Amino acid sequence: MGAVNIWRDTVTYDELTINERQKTDQKFSEMLDKVRRGFPDDKTLATLSERVFSTPIEKKFKILQQGGNAPVCLFPKVDMCKEFNETMLANLPSPTVKIRATNLIDGTGNIHGLVNGALGTVQAISETRITVNFDRITDPCEIEKVKRKFMVMKNVFVYRSQFPLILAFAVTIHKCQGLSLDNAIIDLSENVFSAGMAYVALSRVRTLSGVHLTCFNPKSLMVSSCSIKEIN
User: Fold this and answer.
1) What's this model's pTM, rounded to 2 decimal places?
2) Which one of 4, 50, 80, 199 is at 20 to 30 Å from 144 when CA atoms are compared?
3) Looking at the DSSP assignment, which residues form a beta bridge with residue 119?
């Protein structure tokens, strides 16, 4: 039995008819609906092509950041995120501080009511805690180390203690699900490898003006035929 059938046969649901994320940009909302259903028209494709920028990604990131609304980069693959995060880290001005006040971070644990994927900025660091200003949360949060236990073989365990934070100048499209962003730099190239990926990335952004594409391949707008059948 496929996942779509399991969902239909075992789950009752209420249909949400109001798009809260893109409610201030109706044209963008309508465009996303075409992408979601797998029928982007020529105007939609042309509009997305117009959102492609030619400047280096690091420079584009800095321009948007200086405008007061730092973007998040959404990439299809983990290695792309890793490479960009390391580049951005290396480009920070201070050569002596390992975790700097301008590091965008991603909380990887449910702390202070936060959930996985919460984004913020490191403000201070000590040996025992890191102070973070999370986006859309008024008060700074003190993040302490967490301890985890792993079994490597029968009756043999390894304990690891670390801060549940990672660099997040860039995150994978898979990991961005649930986020709402004012600005995003998105890769919609041949690196997009799964149905629905492009839609997920684009629909994280509140307005079309907040969409900044490193490149755009129309073939990235792939959809799942099973999902489309269920929608219809």
Assistant:
1) 0.80
2) 80
3) 106
The residue with greater pLDDT, 178 or 192, is: 192
Q: How far apart are CA 122 and CA 131, in angstroms?
A: 6
> What average pLDDT score do residues 190-207 get?
96
One-letter amino acid of 12: T
Specify which of 2-6, 80-84, 137-141 reaches the highest per-range mean pLDDT. 80-84
Name all domains of the chain by residue range, CATH numbers in brackets.
11-76+173-232 (3.40.50), 80-169 (no CATH)
Is 195 in contact with 222 (CB distance < 8 Å)?
Answer: yes
Structure tokens at 163: 């801060």
Work out the average pLDDT over 166-182. Answer: 91
